[in-house]
């Protein structure tokens, strides 16, 4: 571990702490770094939605409600990769609901080929909690969402995906998320590790931070 | 009829063989013309399989190059050697061959093999907004 690397880590740690303490919701231009290597930049706050750009320069529109899936994703070429809109149900009622409250809703999804489908969700409020985020105790609301299909003949539910998330109302961000896909047997965990204010970062620092998250040396 | 039977069987088998899915094709090194056609005036998304990082590079027809990594930009130059190797120069020039395996293109790096996988080739410059000027310095943050 060289001196530059330590300096970088210290700098990013300071930046994360300073930014988290000073801010509420991130301003456009802010970069969020997650433990699984995901890096996104906030482009725009747009009413009840935020538009982020990921490291592959795809523009992703998120609803303000954290239990809703992303509304749409556009590629760098401007083509739609998917769009998912609320079709039925009231997931907004879950935001301030008491623990154990469950809401069902359905979305209409169109993929890159224009093929439309319906997606069913069941989300449960798990209550308020405190988690350590960017060096401070953050008040979060926890939710658990299941995406499922219903068998056409047997009417049984098949769980496609389970998402457990911790949402910080102050930061207006999901700060922890575990996503399980039972059929595929995959589990993906992600937590927020840095929020970098607009213009306050260098490529080399981000690269070092990501290498540290992977447990390897900076390359 | 008995004499014809082996021939009929053989021709039927040959017909079946042609419909069997092909094995993954062997790596094919691209020549200079193919490399130019692939990269020139294209914005290319590449994924470094060693450090797992993504970058976008625009290859201007006049030999300039613009690269974006996590919204940080650097400008340099590029050229293609007669043997098909593509050279990029930001601080020091490095020349590497390009290989195609099936439909996927890779940059081959000594001792690391196919270290860079190209994800997409988009026509034109997708990194600079229309009318924006080319960066003068080696790095800038728009």
Tell me the distance between the termini of chain B: 79 Å
Instruction: Provide a count of the helices of chain B.
Output: 2
Rounded to the nearest angstrom, the radius of gyration of chain A is 18 Å
The global form of chain A is globular
- The radius of gyration of chain B is 22 Å
Series of H and E elements of chain A: HEEEEEEEEEEEEH
Q: How does the SSE layout of this entry go?
A:
The complex is a heterodimer of chains A (219) and B (142).
Chain A: H1 3-22, E1 31-34, E2 39-46, E3 49-54, E4 59-63, E5 72-74, E6 80-89, E7 102-111, E8 116-133, E9 136-150, E10 157-168, E11 173-181, E12 186-196, H2 203-213
Helix pairs in contact in A: 1-2
Chain B: H1 4-19, E1 28-29, H2 32-39, E2 42-48, E3 53-59, E4 64-69, E5 72-80, E6 86-89, E7 93-96, E8 98-101, E9 104-109, E10 113-123, E11 139-140
Antiparallel strand pairs in B: 1-8, 2-3, 2-10, 3-4, 4-5, 5-6, 5-11, 6-7, 8-9, 9-10
Q: Overview of this structure, please?
A:
The complex is a heterodimer of chains A (219) and B (142). With 219 residues, chain A is mainly β. Chain A has a single domain (3-213), classed as YmcC-like fold (Beta Barrel), CATH 2.40.360. Chain A has two helices and twelve strands; from the N terminus they run αββββββββββββα. Chain A has helices spanning 3-22, 203-213; strands at residues 31-34, 39-46, 49-54, 59-63, 72-74, 80-89, 102-111, 116-133, 136-150, 157-168, 173-181, 186-196. In chain A, strands 1-2-3-4-5-6-7-8-9-10-11-12 form a twelve-stranded antiparallel β-barrel. In chain A, a hairpin with a 2-residue loop joins β8 (116-133) and β9 (136-150). In chain A, α1 crosses α2. Chain B is of the alpha+beta class and 142 residues long. Chain B has one domain (28-140): Beta Barrel (Lipocalin). In chain B, 17% of the residues lie in helices and 44% in strands. Chain B has two helices and eleven strands, in the order αβαββββββββββ. Chain B has helices spanning 4-19, 32-39, and strands at 28-29, 42-48, 53-59, 64-69, 72-80, 86-89, 93-96, 98-101, 104-109, 113-123, 139-140. In chain B, strands 1, 2, 3, 4, 5, 6, 7, 8, 9, 10 and 11 form an eleven-stranded antiparallel sheet that branches. The mean pLDDT of chain B is 85. The A-B interface holds A 31, 37, 39, 41, 55-57, 76-77, 199, 201-203, 206-207, 210-211, 214, 219 and B 43, 45, 50-54, 56, 68-72, 119-120, 122, 126, 141.
